[in-house]
Amino acid sequence: MPDKMEEDLSCTGRCAKNMMFTFNLLFLVSGIMALALGLFIVIFPVSTHVAVLMGNGKFIYAGYILMVAGIAVVVVAFVGCCGAKYENKMLLGGYFLALIFIFVIEFVAGVVALAFYTQAEFYIEDNLEIGVMEQYGLPGEEDLTAAWNYIQWWFECCGFKGNATDAALIYTRSLWYLTSNVRVPESCCTESNNKIVNLQMCQDRQNIDWYTNINNQGCYNVIFGTAIQLSVIIAVVGIVLSIIQFFGMAFSYCLLRRLAG
Predict the structure, then answer these.
(1) How far apart (Å, rounded) are the C-alpha atoms in residues 187 and 76?
(2) Where would a tag sit more exposed on the chain, N or C end, judged by fewer CB atoms within 10 A?
(3) What is the pLDDT of residue 260?
(4) How many CB atoms lie within 10 A of CB 214?
């Protein structure tokens, strides 16, 4: 009977048992948060489009890893509560091993996010320049073209660096410009109340005031900043979950020792 088993536990064992319940509540909440964050990163259009433009989806992969870890945490938290409540050594042993497995998953997610963080600056500008100059608007590059259009519209930017003049000059040197009859893509044109102010003046190659109707900033800073923010968030969440898990492993191990002794 559970009551008899409770009496057999020492004060330390009962403390570990009570702390496991408290820990599992925090563990469950953190698992739900990790799942929500991973899902947000994977489906949020800005993050997916930024990954396409950078030619590197490491933080998207980390988002998937967080989703897997979050689901595992919810299941494992339930197993841990059952193991502590019924003082079942098999459940507690499985719980301990599962925490180690999740710890490894989160460690991998953190490493992936940090790897992206440390490498991003070295290749992002080149990838953005190649994307605009050699790939935008061409057959077979529909995903990249859609990503550029979305980012330019969302962040009200144009091209990858400089101001409106720089952006227009970049596009005029692109392969897209050779097959187009306009100056810049529609997504580069300034908006007011979610409507393009003057599409014709923005895109007309003969208009001498075109620069007043083009988004007056390049997209490099906003793309780089978004990617770095997502990577830092993933790394921090992974570290926090790992710290919580450390205490969970300690409490479950302590309880297992008390039950075995």
Answers:
(1) 46
(2) N
(3) 58
(4) 26
Identity of the residue numbered 89? K
Residue with the two structure tokens 């002794």: 261
Structural element, H or E, at residue 242:
helix 220-260
Rounded to an integer, what distance in angstroms lies between the CA atom of residue 213 and that of residue 191?
9
pTM comes to 0.76
From CA 217, how far away is CA 170, in angstroms rounded?
A: 13
**210-233 pLDDT tens trace:** 778 899 889 988 888 888 888 788
- Closest to 90 (Cα-Cα) out of 261, 249, 252, 244: 252
Considering all CA atoms of the chain, what is the largest pairwise distance in Å, rounded to the nearest integer?
Answer: 90
Burial track 112-138 (b if 16+ CB lie within 10 A, e otherwise): bbbebbeebeeebeebbbebbbebbbe
